[in-house]
Every structure is written in C-alpha cells, then in structure tokens.
Design a protein that fits this description.
heterodimer; A: about 270 residues; alpha/beta; 7-stranded parallel beta sheet; 8 helices; 10 strands; B: about 400 residues; Urease, subunit C, domain 1; 2 domains; 6-stranded mixed beta sheet; 11 helices
C-alpha cells in the first residue's frame, strides 16, 4: 500500500486528480485501447472532479478515449432526481468534459430486473478489458462503494440494503429527512474493485479517521470492507492530515517520508 | 445528430460560454436546442448517448427568453388599425423589424375602429394565420400570437387617443353577440380590452374568458369593486396601468387597487401592462406598482406606427399624431397617443428606474406575458421543451442577437 498524506482536503483532491490525469496521459489511450476508470460519488471526490475538469479545459486532459464505470446508484430513485448518482455525475463531471456518452457506465437503479442489470455491468467491465484504475472513497463505517459491514470480500456487483450509518450519513442530501433516503442500492462488489489493476482510495476529514485506522492498521475484516485492499497489489490511499488522526505516529511518519519521494516523481510530469 | 437516434436524428446546437435565465436567476450553464426546442442535455446524454453537432460560443453574454409584446399598434409607418390593401403584409413587415428589439412573439393591437375595419383586418388576418410559419415566427419575423382588440367597448371619458365616434356599449342582449357583430368574429383574438363599468359587461367578460380570450380592463372609469367583479368573471389583465383609468384614490383605489386586492380568486393572478418608456408613467409610480405586485408586471410597448419613424406628423387609426423626441401626442393636444420606445429600451428603462435585478426585468418582458396568455409552458422561458426563442445581450441588456426556434434571425 502507498499512503499519501496531504495537508488539507484541497491539496489531497488536487494530488488525486493529478494522479488520475498522469495515469491517463502516460497510458496514451486510443480508439483501439481505451483507459478504463472506476469512479465514485459523494462529497469527498467533489474537489477532485473540479480539478479534472480544470485540466480538461486547459487542454491537458481529454476523456475521448476513456471509459468510466461508476461504483453505485440508488435503487428506485428517479434518474432525474437531483440526488441520483446519474445527476451527480452529469452535473459535476460529464457535462464539463468530452467523454463519449456511450462510454459512461452507471448502474440503472430503475431497471426492471436489478440482478440482470448487475450481471450486465460486470460483463461490460470485462468487455472493456477490466479496470485500469478504480477511484473510491470510504464510508464512516469503512465501506467501499455500498459494500456495507458484513459484505463478502469476494462479492460482485449486486443489490445491497443500506446500513443505518449510511442512511444517516446521506440524509443531509435529502433535506435531513431519513424517510426520503433510499434504502437499497446497486453496487460493485469488493471483488469487482479488487479485480482492477490499480485502486486509489481518497479519504479526507476527521470523521473518516477511525475507518482509515480500521482499514489499514487492523486486520482484513468484512466489517470494514476497505481493509480488503490490503491484499491488492497496487493500492494508494490519499488522505489529508485530519483523516490520519487515529493512526499510529509511526505509520504516519513512515508514509510521510515516502510521500515526499512520490511527490518529486509526480511533479516531474507537471 | 450524434446520438443513438432513439428519439430524434435532428441536429443539436449547444450554446456555450453563456449565462442563461433560469429559475429566476442567471446561471452559468449551456443551453441545448434541437428541433427548435430547448433540450434536456442530461436526458440526451443518458437516454440517447448523444452530444451536440455544433457549439455556438456566446462570449460570456446573457441568454434569455425572447421578449413578448402583447400591445403593439404598429411601427415603421405601418398602422395595424389602418387597413391597407394587404393587412397581413403590414403585420409581417413589423414582425420582421421588431426582431431587432428582441421581440420574438407579439399581439398586433387594433385600437377602437369602425366594424368595417375590424371585419376587413380580422378576415385577412385569419387567412394569414392559417399558415403556421406566420404564427410561430422565424427568419421572416416574430411570431404572431393573436390579435389584441383594444376597444371599442371602452369609456368615453377615458378614450385617450381613440376616436370617439366609434366607441360602443354592449346593448341589452348579454353575451358576446355585440362583440361578434362589431368584430366579425373572435378567431385569432388573444385579448380584448374593455371597460367593465359598461352595462352588460359581466356576461361578456365571463363568456370571453370561457372562450380562452384574455380579458383586460382599461380605458375605464371603473371603481375597485367593479374591477374586482370583472376579475371574478375572468378578467386577468390591466391595460397600461395608470393610463386611461381613474387615478389611485385612498378611499377608492379604482383599477389600480387590483394590484393588492384580496378579492382575487384563489389560484389566479392579475397582470398589469406597464409602458416603461419614462414618459407614460413617472418612475416613482412605476416603482409603487412594481413593489406592490412584482410578479404581475408585464412590460408592453404600446408602440404606434411612428415607432422607428422620424419626428413629425403621422396617422394612427382614424386620427393624426405628432412626434417630438420620444413623445407622441394627439396632434394639437398634450394627450399621449402611444409610445415609440422599443421593447429592449423599455426593459432597460424598467430595470434602471425600479432598481430591480436583471432577471426580474427580463422576466417582465418574457415570462410574465407568457403566463398572462397561458403559454408559459411553451414561450417566455428556457425550461426544457419550451420554444428556443432567445435573445443574446450584454450586461447592460443591450441586444446582440435574436433567435427563433434556435435559428439566428437577427444579429447586431
């Protein structure tokens, strides 16, 4: 694992965006060889998306030969609802960049047959040649996507019932009315993300600190599903100082030393 | 055109680098147009996997709905109330010219005239409106929504510039028969201005409203309760507020009192026309009306044939008028005979005099008239599905271009 610690939310978001940008540029995607990207939603990646849009508008980054696969979507929420993940991705990312709509994959939470929808999504990922870089966040309960505590660490894309913690955390997007928050979602499985060639988890804020501790300093445990990435060959955790508050000083010092080296390597790409 | 074709193959235009008037504010958003209508780009992206064929860079300008003028008597030497050989050609000529003022839809207005004039004009008009392109507007000119008949059922005392000899009353029969007799028919009539204190007006107002004709109160000496009763029968507009009606009085506000009346039926609104040319209404009076009832304010030009013409004497209806600067008087008197300000001038003057926001000023010339005529699902707004009738302007609301159904019809 790499643990990259930046001073605050904005710097962490910028680092993550630059990493994604550099990965795509050095890959040199073409019509015959697309770059596949797994994408999250929520408040954590918001600034990262803004930065990616900035790099696109300045001409440095094109999404013409990039295929994206979002992690999840609510079940039963109308697609046009302002809180659906389709709306989030359209407003915060897709409408500002040059991605081909046919290459933007998001699970359809209003599909007639939800299980079939999940199976097709897995197939689409396989048809695209697998995912080059899966970007994700972490819930306060340590979940990746909607793989709530207790999810199998080898799970695939499926329907999940949301945990109380998650519903409470999401209520702020539904006027603080718990009854309006969807209770089910379609989500990629832990196994699905583990299959990617590289994983980057962005974690910011003190409220995520305990989850980060559980994910990287404790054992692999299905109650903290992000811990599964301890067994992935290429994972980066990008976080701000606040997110490290529950970690051992020794861990932080070790990885801060490493961060300086990494930053030197990546700033050479500008 | 680039899409999976599941909905349409028509080309898609994306207006970029603009601020659009939406949800009562100026938003930094792109505007998408297909088939002459405003398109929902999110649906295009997800349902059709489509994107734009071409992008139009607006250079940071404001993009707003095209203006709608519900009271326009003519212009550039054409007087709608003076029938020539071909009244339709006169309307078409003015319709083309007003594109320069950002007007994309309008109601040609006829002042009090003899029945022969109404019959001739409306009959020829029907012939022209049978052709769709005349109604919807385009490169040939602004769309014609329907005729506004201002008179002859108005008050003698408040006739203004209307010719006295052609004023009429409703007679005893009730219903719209006297109107059908005078006008020759109500096809293609959007609005009728009448004085509600005239005997027999109630059934007229009621029947006109039921037929879908907007009833406006004006050129009247009605008191507030007569006006309120007319509103209850269906009247929904006031023709050029303050002008040609009794002045506001604190014990009987008259028609002006409708702005704050508590006897308006639930779910309905009273709109009022304002000629914001700086002449017909003192700016302080404009502000009083605006502050009392901002949602009802509809900017109208009430422009006469002299609009666009040089100073001097010209004929309006059956009378002669004289132009001095921005003023137009009944020749030989100090009675105003109408305005010669253009709609974009009125929008700028209204914003400056009232101190309202740019979105508010723009809505007074687009959204509110569309709501008045019951067409706000189609015109006067940039909501998805509405007609792409647009104006492009700078921060001072000086026009740069006009579009109808997404096609550029005028550029500065």
């Amino acid at each position: 694992m790499r643990l990259v610690i930046l001073e605050d939310y904005d710097l962490a978001s910028e680092w993550a965006a630059k990493y994604i940008r550099n990965r795509i540029i050095t890959f040199r995607p073409t019509a015959q060889r697309y770059f596949t990207l797994g994408l999250p939603t929520g408040s954590t990646p918001y600034a990262c998306y803004k930065k990616l849009i900035e790099y696109h508008k300045s001409g440095d980054l094109s999404f013409k030969y990039v295929k994206t696969f979002n992690m999840d979507e609510y079940v039963g929420l109308p697609r046009a609802h302002p809180e659906s993940y389709h709306s989030y991705m359209w407003n915060n990312f897709f409408k500002h960049v040059d991605i081909d709509p046919a290459n933007a994959h998001i699970l359809d939470g209003n599909a007639q047959d939800l299980e079939a929808e999940c199976a097709v999504f897995e197939k689409d990922i396989a048809d695209a040649g697998g995912i080059d870089l899966f970007v994700g966040g972490i819930g306060p309960d340590g979940h990746i996507a909607f793989n709530e505590p207790g999810s199998s660490l080898v799970s695939r894309t499926r329907v999940k019932t949301l945990a109380k913690d998650t519903i409470v955390a999401n209520a702020r997007f539904f006027g603080h009315d718990l009854s309006k928050v969807p209770t089910m979602a379609l989500t990629v499985g832990v196994g699905t993300v583990m299959d990617s060639r590289e994983v980057m988890i962005v974690i910011t804020g003190a409220h995520k600190a305990f989850a980060l501790y559980k994910a990287i300093e404790d054992g692999v445990n299905h109650m903290w599903t992000v811990s599964a990435f301890q067994q992935h060959p290429r994972t980066i955790f990008v976080c701000d100082e606040d997110a490290t508050l529950e970690l051992r000083v020794k861990t932080v010092k070790y990885f801060k030393g490493e961060t300086e080296t990494l930053c030197l390597v990546f700033t050479s790409y500008q | 055109m680039p899409s999976n074709g599941s909905v349409s193959d028509a080309p898609i235009t994306q207006f970029i680098n603009c601020r659009i008037l939406k949800e009562h504010t100026l938003q930094r958003e792109d505007l998408w147009v297909r088939d002459g209508r405003i398109l929902d780009p999110e649906k295009l992206f997800f349902d059709e996997q489509g994107y734009a064929d071409r992008q139009l860079d607006c250079g940071g300008a404001i993009l707003a709905p095209g203006f709608i003028d519900v009271q326009l008597n003519g212009g550039y030497g054409v007087d709608f109330s003076t029938p020539s050989e071909d009244p339709g050609a006169g309307v078409a000529f003015v319709a083309k010219k007003i594109l320069e003022h950002g007007v994309t839809s309008f109601c040609p207005t006829l002042v009090t005239s003899p029945p022969s004039v109404y019959h001739k004009v409306l009959q020829r008009f029907s012939f022209f409106t049978a052709r769709c392109e005349f109604q919807s507007g385009g490169v040939h000119g602004a769309g014609v929504l329907g005729v506004h008949l201002e008179g002859p059922f108005i008050s003698l005392e408040k006739k203004g510039a209307h010719p006295e000899q052609f004023l009429r009353t409703f007679g005893g029969s009730g219903g719209v028969n006297p109107l059908l007799e005078v006008y020759g028919g109500l096809d293609n009539v959007s609005m009728v201005t009448l004085a509600p204190e005239l005997a027999g007006s109630q059934s007229v107002v009621e029947e006109l409203s039921q037929r879908g004709v907007t009833v406006s109160l004006g050129h009247s000496v009605a008191n507030l309760s007569q006006a309120e009763e007319a509103v209850q029968q269906g009247a929904s507009f006031i023709t050029h507020l303050f002008n040609a009606m009794l002045p506001f009085h604190h014990r009987d506000p008259g028609i002006v009192g409708l702005l704050t009346s508590n006897r308006i039926p639930a779910g309905r609104s009273v709109f009022y026309g304002m000629i914001a040319d700086g002449i017909h209404t003192n700016p302080a009076a404009l502000r009083i009306a605006h502050r009392a009832h901002p949602a009802g304010l509809v900017l109208v030009t009430d422009a006469i044939m002299a609009m666009g013409l040089p100073p001097g004497r010209h004929t309006l209806g059956q009378q002669v008028i004289e132009i001095q600067g921005l003023h137009a008087y009944v020749a030989g008197t100090t009675t105003l005979s109408g305005s010669i300000a253009t709609m974009d001038m009125c929008v700028r003057h209204f914003q400056q005099a009232s101190g309202c926001s740019v979105p508010e000023a723009l809505e007074a010339a687009s959204l509110h008239p569309a709501q008045l005529l019951g067409i706000s699902h189609q015109k006067g707004s940039l909501e998805y599905g509405c007609d792409a009738d647009l104006v492009l302007m700078d921060d001072q609301m000086v026009l740069e271009a006009t579009y109808i159904s997404g096609v550029e019809v005028w550029r500065k």
